[in-house]
């Protein structure tokens, strides 16, 4: 399922800034490559909807998950190694490996929490018709592979782009990334464009 440990060890060996002792984060619910291909075949292909009316505030995110811990802090703890938090649940130390680019970080401020399927993309592929509660659930989903701790500037370069316009810098992560994208779109019954499907098909061919 997704990128293997042996493949990650190869990445670590080739990347001067990584340590082989640190595993890459693995969100829950990532399907196998074959399952992702089947789910992709079941998605509805349609032209992307309008951006009109979109606002990130329509997807309430970083809500309280437990105690003083919000979604961001929950993912930082899930995806990091030896993460220490203060009384407010803010991460004060730890180590994070960004699977998109292989970067390793020891300051939480260098790490963003990526929505694998961006909120804007979701809006244009069906979420504009959802209730606010449904959009909140999507933006804070801890059950499906929709949230991932990654290098901040890599996340910013991705922005709200789909796989037809942006792919992870690490080609070894194509299979996992495409599988996560397909699973999220399948679970939430979101549409995909023809170009999006072609890009996902190409990435899943690397599985």
Automatic annotation (TrEMBL):
Q: Does the keyword Signal belong to this entry?
A: yes
Q: Where is the GmrSD restriction endonucleases C-terminal domain?
A: 108-202
- One Pfam family name is GmrSD_C
Name the InterPro entries on file: GmrSD_C
Q: Which UniProt keywords are listed? A: Signal
Signal peptide annotation: 1-21
Q: What is this protein called?
A: GmrSD restriction endonucleases C-terminal domain-containing protein
Q: Which organism is it from?
A: Penicillium bovifimosum
- Lineage start: Eukaryota, Fungi, Dikarya, Ascomycota, Pezizomycotina
């Amino acid at each position: 399922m997704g990128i293997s440990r042996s493949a990650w060890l190869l990445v670590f060996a080739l990347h001067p800034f990584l340590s082989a002792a640190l595993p890459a984060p693995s969100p829950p619910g990532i399907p196998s490559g074959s399952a992702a291909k089947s789910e992709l075949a079941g998605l509805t292909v349609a032209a992307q909807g309008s951006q009109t009316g979109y606002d990130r505030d329509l997807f309430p995110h970083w809500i309280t998950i437990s105690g003083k811990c919000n979604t961001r802090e929950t993912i930082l703890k899930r995806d990091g190694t030896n993460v220490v938090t203060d009384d407010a649940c803010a991460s004060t130390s730890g180590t994070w490996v960004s699977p998109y680019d292989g970067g390793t970080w020891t300051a939480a401020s260098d790490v963003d929490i990526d929505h694998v399927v961006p909120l804007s993309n979701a809006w244009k592929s069906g979420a504009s018709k959802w209730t606010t509660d449904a959009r909140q659930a999507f933006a804070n989903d801890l059950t499906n592979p929709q949230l991932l701790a990654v290098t901040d500037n890599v996340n910013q370069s991705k922005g709200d782009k789909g796989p037809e316009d942006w792919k992870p810098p690490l080609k070894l992560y194509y299979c996992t990334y495409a599988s996560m994208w397909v699973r999220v779109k399948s679970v939430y019954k979101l549409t995909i464009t023809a170009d999006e499907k072609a890009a996902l098909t190409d990435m899943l061919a690397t599985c």
